[in-house]
């Protein structure tokens, strides 16, 4: 009798293990570009990028014109003048590359700075939606590529909807 009681107790303790185990998944990148605040930031970043790109293209076009003029005048220049002009063009090219790298770094840090607060808010919404949907845990699809899971619930659309409701773009 005692053995039957112990077996029943062990079986009843193991029952929750057999309950439905649901895993949540979310595509944070999709949320980031789909929520209204994310779209606003994307437009701001795009505007800044186009401004910097226009400036770089202008400087590049100027350098190309200098190189074309040099090629036309090259035959009538003495060696010393050629060397000076080549050094001058190399310096301008180097400055252009440095400026391009500087702008690239500025854009990356601007993007990071702008997206950080939204990512914090997204995380809060993910936690809320995950609890509401009674999922055991939620993973990010692009960083945790799970090939197969029996009970997976995609929370992405619900998170986008909840985010826009809770944090309307200004």
List keywords for this structure.
disordered N terminus, single chain, 5 helices, 3-stranded parallel β-sheet, 170 residues, mainly alpha
The oligomeric state of the chains shown is single chain
- Anisotropy-based shape: elongated
Biggest sheet statistics: 3 strands, parallel
Distance between the termini: 70 Å
Structural class: mainly alpha
On the 0 to 100 scale, the average pLDDT is 86
Care to describe what's here?
Helix 2 packs across helix 3, helix 2 packs parallel to helix 5 (156-166) and helix 4 packs across helix 5. 11% of the residues are buried. The model is unreliable at 1-15 (pLDDT under 50). The chain has a 3-stranded parallel β-sheet with strand order 2-1-3. It contains 5 helices and 3 strands; from the N terminus they run αβαααββα. The longest helix has 54 residues, at 79-132. It has 170 residues and is mainly α. It has one domain.
Brief characterization of the structure:
With 170 residues, this protein is mainly α.
Summarize the topology.
Layout (H helix, E strand, L loop, with lengths): L1 H17 L4 E4 L1 H7 L1 H38 L5 H54 L4 E4 L11 E3 L1 H11 L4
Parallel strand pairs: 1-2, 1-3
């Amino acid at each position: 009798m005692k053995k039957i009681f112990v077996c029943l107790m062990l079986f009843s303790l193991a029952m929750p293990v057999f309950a439905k185990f649901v895993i949540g998944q979310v595509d944070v990148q999709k949320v980031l570009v789909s929520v209204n605040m994310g779209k606003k930031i994307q437009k701001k970043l795009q505007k800044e990028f186009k401004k910097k790109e226009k400036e770089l293209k202008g400087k590049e076009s100027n350098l190309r014109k200098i190189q074309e003029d040099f090629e036309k005048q090259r035959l009538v220049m003495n060696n010393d003048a050629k060397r000076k002009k080549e050094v001058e063009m190399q310096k301008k090219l180097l400055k252009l590359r440095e400026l391009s790298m500087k702008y690239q770094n500025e854009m990356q840090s601007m993007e990071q700075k702008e997206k950080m607060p939204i990512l914090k808010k997204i995380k809060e919404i993910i936690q809320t939606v995950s609890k509401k949907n009674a999922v055991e845990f939620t993973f990010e699809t692009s960083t945790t590529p799970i090939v197969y899971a029996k009970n997976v619930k995609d929370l992405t659309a619900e998170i986008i909807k909840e985010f826009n409701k809770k944090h309307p773009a200004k």
